[in-house]
Amino acid sequence: MRLLFLLLCLFTFVDVAFCQSLKTANKPPVDTSVFDKWPTLRRAPSISNDGNFLLYQVLNGNETTLILKSLNSDWERKFGGVAMGYFTLDNKHAVLKTKNDSLLVWKLGSDLESSIPAVTSYTYTNNGKDEWIAYRTRNKEKHLFVRHLATSKEQVYPSAKEYLFSANGSTLFIKEELNNGGAKTECLLYVNLKTGKEKKIWQGTNSGNFVFDPSGNGLLFTIHKGEADNEIWYYNQNTESAVLKVNNQTTGIENNLIVTGTDLKFSKDGKNIFFKLQERLPKADPNAVKVDIWHYNEQLHSSQPTGPLKYLAVISNDQNTVIRLEKENERIIGQPDAHNEYIVVSDKANLRGQQFWNRNARYSVNLMSTKTGSRTIIRDTATSFNCKFSPDSQYFIYYDYQQKAYFSFDLQNHIAKNITRGIPFSLSNEELNDYDITLQHPVGLGGWVKQGEKLFPIIYDDYDVWVVDPAAEKLPVNLTNGYGRLHHIKFRLVFENDYGIEGKDVIYKKEKPILLTAFNTLSKDNGFFSARPERKGNPAKLTMEAYNYYQIKSQAYSTQSLLPPMQPVKALHKNVWVVRRSSGRESPNYFVTSDFKSFSPVSNIYPEKNYNWLTSELHQWQSLDGKTLQGILYKPENFDSTKKYPVIFHYYERLSDGLNIYTDPVASFGPINIPYFVSNGYLVFVPDIVYTIGEPGKSVVSSVVSAAKYLSKSPWIDSAKMGLQGHSFGGYETAYLVTHTNLFAAAAEANGHTDLISGYGALQGGGSARWHFEIYQFRTQSTLWKNPEIFIKNSPIFNVPNISTPLLIMHPKGDPIVPWSQAVEFFNALHRLSKKVWMLQYDEGGHGIGGKDAMDYTIRLTQFFDHYLKGTPAPKWMVSGVPARLKGIESGY
Questions:
Q1: Using CA atoms, how far apart are residues 804 and 741, in angstroms rounded to an integer?
Q2: Is there a contact between 566 and 550 (Cβ–Cβ < 8 Å)?
Q3: Which pTM value belongs to this model?
Q4: Per-residue pLDDT tens over the stretch 817-835
């Protein structure tokens, strides 16, 4: 009886496995028709304050679907063509606009809704208690309707030209356009949303560029009075009307400068007004000779059109004197301190543009008073600068590239101290040690821990997280207890300081847990840990899996191996979080969690299940020069180990950190689209490349050839049908490979350098390309005339006679990064020697292509590899070409 039961179980298992295998075998491959209709999640979702409902978007080609879903039941509603909506503060409604222009206030969990028809646009705001929407309708285009959501009471402004809510939802600004006897006049209204009281603050013409202060109490705007004549006006709710604050005659503005009327911004406390001044230039003579004069002592090449120079300036609300913050060849670093008393200015006047290529170039960094304009030198020999003011305006924290340490600069006594002296590890990304030292930037300052009244910076080494004393009186404390380095895990704060325009700081309380994102550099697993500043010991593991949850730039060698990260989203009043999870074989979807240990699915967007998709495997081997390397092998879902497969090697520095990254099937814009080629019967191998300084070409041979030899040992690899494909620097690497090995049956390079000598003297984005060769990817650490042999031996153009591999080149004429002439040089050399070479030159595009050009390239790239790696007949364009006179008429497919 037991034997019969075991046989029955075995039969059932085999039957299920066979059916599953048959199901996989019957899936169609991905084809080009799906490129523009592959469904994907779009932007971060929105969760109701009570954590019961979620709003998220699904993009399908040009169609967007908004999904409103309960997190506790099966209730769900879908709205086609709808942009992102809003949840009301009371968790009872969602506000959204349908594609037929109805504005809906939808009752959550129900089919009940109120509708406002023919709405062309709307804006939502709240002050934390009350909520309003302002909207316009198709029938009354000039009317602005402002509705209080809780009571549905409306106020109508029949002549509203423009409007703006303050960020805190307390105030509404309206610009009315009135017609007085044929003459148009503008009237500016300031409306208190809570009381409904409105005040006329100004009347005139040509007003614009309206900006609220953070409190909603103050407003800035400009008046354009004529060419080179702009005024900045200021209003505060405590005054009767707006007043002129700045014009070209204001004290502190030099005669050769004018007010631009743009780039207006309040300080965080609303007490200072920042704006731009512009040099006053006479009108150019239309009959004058148009000549650029290149000068040996200039900061920028004359090929870079800069227009009039602009400079940041500031004026206090209670003062009438402008302080110019920038001069020529200077720039502001970061944001002002919280009290708006200081700003940091770098002075690059003596560099002559050398900071882009000369590792010994130095410039000064100055602390500048926004009240007086006085300056204090922080560093007079800086090479690069990474900095931030402490939120309490006590310290200025910066990284010293020469000493490879963080320093605090006390804003009261102007003393600088090394605050990371007790950290025995590098504070930069250690994997970037094959780059020049000037590009080995610090991992960063993540946030702050508040202990009593004092704020302590949170600083990263490459693996662990440290809390340091800004006064340098206490030794740094390892928040993650060295667990990261010991287990090859890179820890980062999930919520970090913002170094962008807003410059927001993240402050953690000492007694509260800190959520960390974790990435294992060996296994490529990703997940979450938790650490508490007041407790010693290892961080607590929450989850760590072969998925991509939340991985940021500093946790990977290359951003090309990352998805745009999505921070976990939390409900305001409940411990409910939404995260995005994906892997190489599973598209990104939303999951809900309360503990970051268990995750329940919310969305169900898995288009890959309908096709022969892929799997991704991590492999490890030794390079030709003995280095341990990693790489990703992509196999089709229906992989059969009894068959032999052609394989394409694709590379760009190091991409193995992308093992669990999902890639949509799209047209190849430069790099090959891996899911498309794998689904259509190829294996794709992505090997990491580790570089030796001065040997970029030899390094790629060592890495890629060793990878090919390693993979060829597998019985399911057809070693006679191996191909190469690379884009940009990967394009260069392809060109170098085919001049140094005949191991590969076909190769395709896109937008790559082929001649380092001519490339070194070219322009890149309007500036000199020298830095790209000396300190960036080519890693020569030398000028052309000092070590010409480095440039010669690493240039594919000098080894063209060695090529026996058929080569497909793709390079648009408008490439601003790698000159099109690089492709022409290489093609002409191969053509002269009767080598098998084709070049696709697209009239549109730049450092890559898009749209119909990318689709065309995908087709031709597929035909090229299919011919050489699968043995299919060559298309006409490969056999006999397409004459230039038939361009746009005959494709040659």
A1: 9
A2: yes
A3: 0.92
A4: 999 999 999 999 999 999 9
